[in-house]
Design goal:
There is one protein chain. The chain has about 220 residues and is mostly helical. It is built from nine helices and no strands. It starts with a helix and ends with a helix.
Length: about 220
Amino acid sequence: MDVLKWIAQLFEEYGYGVLFFGLLLEFIALPFPGETTMAYAGYLSYAGTLDFGKLVLLAFLGTTLGMTITYFIGRWAGLPFIQKYGKWVLLSPDKLQKTQKWFQRYGYWLIFLGYFIPGVRHFTGYFAGIIALSFRKFVLYAYSGALFWVILFLSIGKLFGPQWDAIFHLVELYALRIAGVVGFIILLYMIYRWRSFLFSSLRKSEKSVKTSNKDDLK
């Protein structure tokens, strides 16, 4: 309850900026209750105090900027630097080992799913940079995961209003499973779209070959 009072006071004093700067700092691994803040911000949108579209935009920008900064820190500074100075931003060796294990389990999808794993999402950006993952692939997983993450938790407050707190704890409990199901659906959709594009390309190629053969016969 003290945390909610603190968050409410921050919004009263600073408005939309709380979401942007709070999430930015959280992904650099400084302590900030990002998910709770988003759910409460969604509730403020339900109450008509804040605009939902602006909240989504600022939450997405704060999250992706924070993740991008940590990616480049990991890429340029490397593992020794993180091991030596990471403790100053709560990046303990235990968290590094935990992230490595999760990465071995989920691969690049951890960057998408990591938002929903407490103690892991703060390190996925650093780790992606440390292993020199291409920036294009990092953006694909990190930014799509960020969009889904912020919309999910902002929507809790927006859709459920005064009951947001109870729903928030329920979603928080099963967030990884929810993200896994949605990620699987997105993957199936991408495969479907890719197959449709491939079949379309093959048909066009076959037609082109037949047309060329007819022209040759003439």
